[in-house]
Amino acid sequence: MKRNVVLLIIAIVAIVVVILMGNIILIGDKLMNLHVYVGYAFYLVLLGLLFWLVVLPLLRIMNAPSTPALHVKNLPTEKDELYKYGLLIARNSRHIENAADRRNHQKALLRKLENGNENTTLLAEIITEEINHRMKLIDASIRERALSILIITALSQNGRFDFITSIIINFRLIHEIVRLSGFRPTYAQLVRLYFEVLLASFITDLSEGFLEEIDFSAILNSVNIPAVLLRSAMDGGLSALMTMRIGYVTKSYIRKGTARITSRKENEKLRKEARREAIRMSVKAFPALAKEGFTQIKNSSFKAVGGFFRNLF
Fold it and tell me: Which member of 205, 236, 251, 271 lies 3.0 to 4.6 Å from 150 by CB, making a disulfide possible if both were Cys?
C-alpha cells in the first residue's frame, strides 16, 4: 500500500505539471531570452516549491504512525492498556512545533500518566483532555484553511491558479491534521483522500447532495457582495466546502482508528461513517465561515490575501 501512495504522488505531480506545462514553458522561454541562467533559476525555484509544498508533506505523512483510534469514546477499559495508550499519544506530540516546548509537554504528560497509573478514572481524564485539545486544534486548522481557499478563489478570477491553490492547500491540510493529531490514517485511506483532493480541484460536483442544504443567496445577500464578485464568491464558497469536507473526513478517519478495520466490509462501513460525519460537520460549520470570508472580501481584500499566503506557506 505504501508503494501505491508513492505512485499516486507521482501521478498527481505529473498531472499538475502537464496542466501547467504550457504556461511554464512560455514564461521560461521569455526568461531565457533575458539570460539563460535566469531561466534555469526560474525552473529550479518551481521544482523547489513543488517539493516543499506538496512532496515533502506527503512523505512526512507516510512516515507517521497509524492511529489507534483518537477518540474519547474509544479509550481502552483495562488500566494497563489505557496507560500504554496514553504513552503512545504522549510520544507522538508533533502538534507542538517547537522542539523544546514539545519535549517539555511530553515530559509533563508522561509525569501525569505515571502519577495516575494506579487510577483508571484519572488516566482516562488525562488522556481525554489531551485528545480534546488536539481535536480543537484540528478544527481550527480546517476552518483556517477553508477560509483561506474561499477568499483566494473569490478574489483570483483565474481558474488555473485556483486549481493549483486548491491542491496545495488541501494537501497541506491533510499534513497539518496528521501533525496535530500525531497519527495518520491507513495508506488506503490516504490514497482515497489524495484522490478526492485531486478530484475536488477539477470539479465542485463532489458534494454528494449536501450543497443544496447551504443557502448561498442568504449568506451573500447578508454581506452585500459586489455583483462583479458574485460568481467568484460562489466558486470560493464551493471550494471552501470541499476543503472542509476533506479535512473532516481525515479527522474522522483518525478518530475512528485502524483497530476496527478487520475486513473489507468493516472498512467500507467505516468509510461511509466518516463521509457522513464529514458532511454533517461541514454543513454545520460552513454558513458562519462563509459569512466571515465574504465579509473579509468586502471589507479588506489585501488583509484577506495576506492571510491566504500565511496559510499556503
Answer: 236
